[in-house]
Amino acid sequence: MRVRTRSTAIIGTVCLVATLALTAASADEPASPQHAAKVTLKNVATAQNPTAGAAGPGGKLWIAERPGTVRVLDSNGLSKPVLDISAETTTDGERGLLGIAFDKRFAHFYISFTNLEGTSTVDEFAVRNGKIQPQTRRTVITQTQPYANHNGGDIKFGPDGYLYIALGDGGSGGDPHGNGQNLDTLLGKLLRIDPRGGKPYAIPSDNPFVNDPNAKDEIWAYGLRNPWRFSFDSGTGDLFIGDVGQNDWEEIDWAPASSKGGENYGWAQMEGTHPFRGGTEPANHVPPVHEYDRANFGCSVTGGFVYRGKAIPALKGQYVYSDYCDGTVRSLQLKNGKVTAVNDLGVNGGEVISFAQGGNGELYVLAIGGSVFRIDPA
Q1: Which pLDDT score, from 0 to 100, does residue 20 have?
Q2: Using CA atoms, how far apart are residues 169 and 151, in angstroms rounded to an integer?
Q3: Exposure of 87 by Cβ count < 10 A (0-12 exposed, 13-18 middle, 19+ buried)?
Q4: Rounded distance between C-alpha atoms, residue 366 and residue 344, angstroms
Q5: pTM, rounded to two decimals
Q6: Rounded to the nearest 10 degrees, how much is the dihedral formed by the CA atoms of 42, 45, 47, 50?
């Protein structure tokens, strides 16, 4: 595939929880979740404000801690830090070390964090024999931030081998700068780049806006408020985005593996399927596959993963997610891009900030207070 290099290093911000502490609300559910798998949460480690996880060399799970450290989980618990950038980041607002990812060959390790000036940054390290090589560190992309919230930070490699970066709308409230619908900024977007194809990166030639002089070439999808966690289904390649709402609605967006990108998820004209502050629904709006209101105890959707492990057959193929304030672990059953059931899995992870997928497909729940749970069969 042809790629065009771009020398300006400009990242975006992905998204954090609406503010690591928002108001309350809970999820809409069908009257009788008949197909809920029977699961339990097994506490396998305690971390310092864990924010993200990634399957690393040898199938071990690497855990990012918000203050700036990365540790490896094994049968003895978490290792000593294998990386420490705590002197380069802060935890004020929604800042910190927010995302980590490996490329498919585990040859390079990527971190997403906000630096001391609040600028969102993605750095790369070479990995040899399962160990980070600090001397190889380089910055791939950066994005300045107008506010301390909605910095985002999630990063994932897609099935196509490219690096995806989710960016919040820049913060404050109500998208005051109109970034969500503005294609001339990386804020409020999902990006797609080739970090090894150029210096500092290359842009895949089939990105949806590469021929649009009024749009940033890095953009894959837009109209996002705070897509704090997103993932690809390891079985199908489908994309799921948990996009944190403003006041009323939390949403989960979905795109099939066959998507060519360019989806407009509506923010800030829309909050879920509802016009936001008198907004007009864009003609190309892609509505969420699932939304829930804040009627009870939820406040900030925490996107997860489609379960592809072997330990819980009844959960296979279901998208597992939670909410930062509610903490209940739930799953969506889908068919042909439509939700057929919403299941309460009967367990609560507390202030669920993130999920992680191990090398064997099993899922972990990360609570901001420090608990690292594995989802096990009950």
Answers
A1: 40
A2: 8
A3: exposed
A4: 18
A5: 0.92
A6: -40
- Structure tokens, 31: 């009257």
Residue owning tokens 């409230």: 173
Residue 319 is predicted with a pLDDT of 98
CB 62 within 8 A of CB 73: yes
Burial class (CB in 10 A: 0-12, 13-18, 19+), 202: buried
User: What is the spatial distance between Cα 69 and Cα 98, in angstroms, rounded to a whole number?
Assistant: 11
Token pair belonging to 21: 């502490």
pLDDT single digits (tens) 164-195? 999 999 999 999 999 999 999 999 999 999 99
Q: Which residues are registered as beta bridge partners of 112?
A: 99, 122
Residues of the chain with pLDDT under 70: 1-35
Cα torsion 241, 245, 248, 253 to 10°: value is: -20
Closest listed residue to residue 340, CA positions, set 25, 37, 29, 39: 29
* Contact assessment for residue 112 and residue 145, using Cβ atoms and an 8 Å cutoff: no
Distance CA(145)–CA(345), nearest Å, equals 37
Buried b (16+ CB within 10 A) or exposed e, 207-243: bbbbeeeebbbbbbbbbbbbbbbbbbbbeeebbbbbb
Identify the residue whose tokens are 């503010």: 19
